[in-house]
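Quick one, tokens below:
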């Protein structure tokens, strides 16, 4: 897919969508930094990619910390000579209705989900401009467009990611730079993060999905891989929904 030999940072790479993206990119011949707050999980994923014949290393990262974001990019450059692909995927939920939502819950979700994308994109910008190649793929959510009860913090963070994606595409792209910035917006994907919502709703959300199944991490990772590839090089500033049709909102 034209990305063999390039290197990628995948945040939130220890689990779910990030893990699947790290594995798919590595299978394309991309060297991957699996970056996650969960250092042990990130190391396990990196070791498993290496055992499968890929190239990967891990980095303990809190995306909400600017300095750690910069150190992660420094590691990628030290280890692989460049950073071409950034999968800004780390995310958290702290769902609760507005009257019960604490300022700490609001701040954490905004700092990690949206602030993390800002920190990592900012740290990658100069290296990508110098190399004249870059693919930034942010993980948004359909909640950013449609909201969700109990998700004031989460939906706001994801709507912010959509806006950030468009602005960065305008700022960073040019023929010379060859940088694109896009987002994927998953629907209901089976990962630890969605466990609470799936169980609170007795798994009834699946009835709203025209494809009649929840998504897998690989369903989303496939879109991420495409946006990172040469084939996806004319897609820019877009939020690609990967939800099996859930957001169409009707089914009969
Ligand atoms: N699962 C879904 O249904 C769904 C739907 C829409 C969007 N998303 C988004 O997809 C992304 C990945 O989520 P997932 O479903 O794979 O969840 P997950 O819980 O399986 O993975 C999230 C990873 O992010 C890591 N992480 C959390 N805080 C971090 C921080 N401060 N710094 C670095 N890493 C951190 C976690 O340790 C974990 O490994 C998130 O941005 C999430 O909002 C998920």
């Amino acid at each position: 897919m034209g990305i063999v030999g390039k290197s990628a940072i995948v945040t939130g790479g220890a689990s779910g969508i990030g893990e699947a993206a790290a594995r798919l990119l590595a299978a394309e011949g991309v060297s991957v930094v699996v970056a996650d707050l969960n250092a042990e999980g990130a190391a396990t994923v990196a070791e498993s990619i290496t055992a499968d014949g890929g190239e990967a290393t891990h980095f303990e990262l809190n995306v909400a910390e600017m300095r750690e974001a910069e150190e992660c990019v420094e590691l990628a450059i030290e280890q692989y000579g460049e950073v071409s692909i950034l999968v800004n995927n780390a995310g958290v939920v702290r769902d609760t209705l507005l009257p019960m939502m604490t300022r700490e819950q609001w701040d954490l979700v905004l700092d990690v989900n949206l602030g993390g994308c800002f920190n990592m994109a900012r740290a990658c910008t100069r290296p990508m401009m110098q190399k004249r190649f870059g693919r930034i793929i942010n993980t948004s959510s359909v909640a950013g467009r449609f909201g969700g009860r109990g998700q004031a913090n989460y939906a706001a963070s994801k709507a912010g990611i959509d806006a950030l994606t468009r602005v960065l595409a305008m700022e960073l792209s040019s023929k010379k730079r060859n940088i694109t910035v896009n987002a994927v917006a998953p629907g209901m994907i089976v990962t630890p993060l969605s466990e609470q919502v799936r169980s609170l709703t007795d798994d009834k959300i699946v009835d709203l999905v025209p494809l009649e199944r929840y998504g897998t991490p690989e369903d989303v990772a496939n879109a991420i891989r495409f946006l990172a590839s040469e084939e996806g090089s004319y897609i820019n500033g877009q939020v690609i929904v990967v939800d099996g049709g859930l957001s169409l909102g009707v089914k009969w």
